[in-house]
Amino acid sequence: MPKCKNKLRIGREHNQHLQKFSIAVWVEHKVKARGRTKLTLCGPVPICMEQASTLADLRRAAEARLGLPAPLQRWVVDRALCAHDTDTIIKIAGDNIDKPFYLSLDEPESRNKEPSVGRPTEPTQPALPARPEAPVNLEPQVIQLPPASPQQPSTSAPASLPSPSSAPPPAAPPPRPTSVYAALVLAEQQALTPSPCAFECGVCVERVEGAAGVLLHECGHAFCRACLAAVAEHCAEAAAPCPEPGCAGALTAREERALLSAEQWERRLARSLAAAESSAPHSFHCRTRDCAGWALCEPPVARFHCPVCQRVNCLPCQAIHEGVSCEDYQLQSRLAQAAGTDTADEQRTRKMLVDLIARREAMLCPQCNVVITKISGCDGIVCTACKTEICWVTRGRRWGPRGHGDISGGCRCRVGGKRCHPSCRNCH
Fold this sequence. Notes:
Blueprint: E1 13-14, E2 19-33, E3 36-50, H1 55-66, E4 73-77, E5 80-82, H2 89-93, E6 101-105, H3 108-112, H4 177-189, E7 193-194, E8 199-200, E9 207-208, E10 213-215, E11 222-224, H5 225-234, H6 253-259, H7 262-279, E12 283-285, E13 294-296, E14 303-305, E15 312-314, H8 326-339, H9 344-358, E16 362-364, E17 371-373, E18 380-382, E19 389-391, E20 396-397
């Protein structure tokens, strides 16, 4: 069961008499493939409820919305099993309705095995129960649910069937679960999921109507289309992150493509591909001038045949020297460097970089040796090529070999109350 929060509480609708809110319901789904059963969650499916609604009202609403019979519904809010139909939703999920709602179906045989005496205790961390195979084939004739306003039975009525004029109209059978399954599959295949309720965008702080907003598929946060399109268009990472502070979610490729125009999408693909190449530990770019070919070449691979320019790259020499052995090429390179055969532009560029590094206005990345410059700002920087966190004053890594937060290595700033360097401004 994923640890997620209900992000649809921002779409509450107010009127003069009743306070309504939308609940995001995650429906458990069982998929059987290759002899193994896998439990997945589909959704979220919004269900509109009133403030004074009880668990029984939620069961009826889920039956009307999803076609799942109320007697077979099992509700889990956060990690607590809901067993009392008289409990209100506010009591179950809190005043802010900030707990996730999970819906599953009971196995008929598992319900028969429950004890008939005594009230069952609520487990603190229940696991979602097993459900019937999807799509579920529950016939409406087998389970007859009472109408919303049942009539009192008459004791003086004869045993014969009532006349058509006096009998209440028969209740329409609930939709088959196959339609619910098809609706969930359709929602999964949508590129953009519209928000079911109005909300305030966390980026532009403007009120957005439900249909004009987008509900992110990965994390459930809602934003307006214009803000999400701007995030995707100007993002330099391989995956555009969710704008919500502290959220680790990201926009999917389908969402980014639906938000951007064709020209913007092509530019976004080029930037994300370049970011993926620079962040890959064993990436190698073709040494042919202006060639866009690259590949992931892990040791002991020594040759890379570029599919773009059809040239063969030598990984140990980091160059193209077709028809020349590695020993001869390296010898020729050393002789050319000793003779100083570089062009005037190359010599000026090399001298400028050496002077910048000597004046501590530039440095080499400790991971990929890319030249990094900094004009102002914090001493903690990130290499744009390999994403390594660097301490500017010590010219080394910020953290140890295990990554962010590892104080076994790196500059060890503020460990034991000590700064990493006399020039450290204690800002990283």
